[in-house]
Amino acid sequence: MNKMLRRALWASTALAGGMLVSSVAMAQSSGTAAVEELVVTGSRGPADIGGVIVAEVEPKSRASIDSAFISTQAPGQTILSSLNLMPGVNFTNNDAYGSAGGDITIRGFDAQRIALLWDGVPLNDSGNYAIYPNQQLDPDLIEKATVNLGTTDVDSPTAAAAGGTINYVTRKAADEFGVRGEVAFGSNNFQRYYGTLETGRVGPFGTKAWISGLYTSNDLFKPHDAAKQPKGEIEKWQINARIDQEFGDFGQASLIANYNENRNNFINRISLANFNQHVSPSYSETCVRPAPGPGAQDDKTCPTNFYGLNINPSNTGNIRGLSSWNLSDKLVLTVDPSFQYTLANGGGGGYWNETDPQLIGNTNAAGVDLNGDGDVADRVLLYRPNTTNTRRYGVTSSLIYKFADNQSVRVAYTFDRAKHRQTGDVGFIDANGHPENPFAGKDGEGTPVVGADGMNLRRRDRLSIATLNQISVEYRGRFVDDKLLVNVGLRAPFFKRELNNFCYQQNTFNAYCTTQIGSPVAGTDDGTGRPLVTFPQAALNSNAGLQYGNPRKWELKYDDVLPNVGLSYDLTDAWTVYASYAETLSAPRTDDLYDQILVDPGPETNKAFDLGLRYQTPQLMIQGAVWMSKFSNRIERVLDEANGISFSANVGDVDLKGFDGQIGWQPTEYLSAYASYSYTDSEIQGNIKGVSLPTAGNMLYENPKHQGAVRVTYDPIESLAFGVQGKFVGDRWSNLTNTEKFPGYTVWDADVRWKLDQFGLEGTYLQANVANLFDERYLGDMTTNLEGTALAQPGFRRTFILTLHAEF
């Protein structure tokens, strides 16, 4: 039975602890949801086919999936993996279970140029705009996920959306009391335990709520060429909660909260040459530390690539929401606040001599006894991660005036402030080579390593405050018997970065934190009017002569006025044509700004054009678009070999064009099929200046020119459903000089669900998933370069998962 198209205005509101938060909305924010209600009212057609293709009515290139499809995928999987069948989207998972990370591109734009939103709240790292797939909401709690291909919504609260936006929304609380749970087991000792308690409507006001908990763990998978299973484990704990409250005709309200912990050992990357030669990627599995005692001890017998030091711990949490208040029949106010917390690092180890000048600082001490053996003659291995700690506050609000039955105007305001603390406090490791604390010597966590000058030993120390103030206006109306939709908007972001570097800086990844006094280098300028400095050889582990910029404090601002225009026309009840134009901006990342010499590469901008056609009936959906993007001022890290430094530079313009298409077909009640195809071409317009790199005419890295996907679902009887899906990814360049190309691949997955209703267990089923069905050998997530070789994540092996899902 085909579903009717849901109304988009599901947004609701809450007042909790003085903060308004919201319920699920079909769009990214309650403001966008409210204005899109006008669009849905004028739409016709089915809601979806199999949940893998959803009817779209916005006058822009957009693709969506809903919970019906999401639930068929591997339980506990990151939501980004479920987007992988969409046109223009390519996601490579670092393991089969979604807890080890991964990488995503859309229309040739990498993850740092894509905005990821959760209930309208921006999730990209506020410093480098990175996306962390393994920290996302459990898929059982997700109602729908939507991708804007190459564009934003007019109120998108982001400074990093040159390539488009991804938004997923949280499931609302149920009207009836119930319990939902899952237990899953699979390859590589995979275990998953998940449960949700629904309160139903309770109390005098009909309040609804749910609370959910999750634990999952698995061993690292054995790569195709590995001689044995590598050591390491991945664990994740997650708790979520939601409260929904209705206030009659005046509004609705929700409070939504999330907390997530990940403890991961890294899966080692590999070069293309080693992949072709079947060289096994692995970290060292042994660490032998000498017992502290009189005389010189050297920890070199415990390598820094020991698996126990290469970890990726993270603690993240947020409170978020969307809200909508009906001030009158024509006036709606929405207020969407949020708070986010992040504490995470990427592990790492390093050796220190106990007489290192960085430990001695500006004192006359002989050294620091790091291993407690009573002398300062040793070389000691210490845990030295780069830790990021962020506290982020935001609010997105809209005032919407519906001055006619089919026309509305809104004014929106967004505020987003992130205090982004990046430190590298060093910590101790135990006798077996594992960190005493995953966050090392960070305040409030582990025991810091303290130098003779009383300062914590650290590899970086900087504070960034990113503030976005954004004003948007939008007009929306339907004309010609509701066949013509006109959407015109302007987004004006005002973005500011306050930057504080408390250490000497060689490049963004190499700081020197010390109380020593450096030696000025005559004739140099670090951008602040002060000369660069050098330090003694022993302080830099034999890297004498490196020049460092001084500690500094500065501020940068970026602003623009960005149009967002869309038109669509219903040719018939089934056929719709649309066109859109949008401009986007991506301000420089903090890693583009913390350099030896103070440089501002400026923001990236994009102009996106789309022309699309949709055909939507209960049995057949076809969506396709030709598009073009004019991407300007691309920022990349470049190497100045003459001076031995890396820095961020504006390397020029890139033209992109392509085609995205998807089709869903349901010929019978029991059979449905889906297919998508994308062609993406990119051309760098010039050579990178200053470093003589021949890039003109080349393609962007990590961008397959051709990719496609298929899925077939067959339900022979009411209690049994089969699904099989495949994703083809073409060859991808790994650098901007186009001298190394990673081969394409095709990965197939399968799923089977057996409902147990006939045994009196309504809502209970067994589900089997097989990931990488034919055990394809491939390379995924890449660390790309301007030139030369790159490293990539080896694809996971064939993986089996069995899940018992029960509802009461």
Automatic annotation (TrEMBL):
Subcellular localization: Cell outer membrane
Keyword Iron listed: yes
Keyword S-adenosyl-L-methionine appears in the UniProt entry: no
State the UniProt keywords alphabetically. Answer: Cell outer membrane, Ion transport, Iron, Iron transport, Membrane, Receptor, Signal, TonB box, Transmembrane, Transmembrane beta strand, Transport
Domain of life here?
A: Bacteria
Per the record, membrane topology reads:
Multi-pass membrane protein
- List each copy of the TonB-dependent receptor plug domain by range: 59-163
Residue intervals of the TonB-dependent receptor-like beta-barrel domain: 305-773
Position of the signal peptide: 1-27
Q: Which family does it belong to?
A: Belongs to the TonB-dependent receptor family.
Protein name as annotated:
Iron complex outermembrane receptor protein
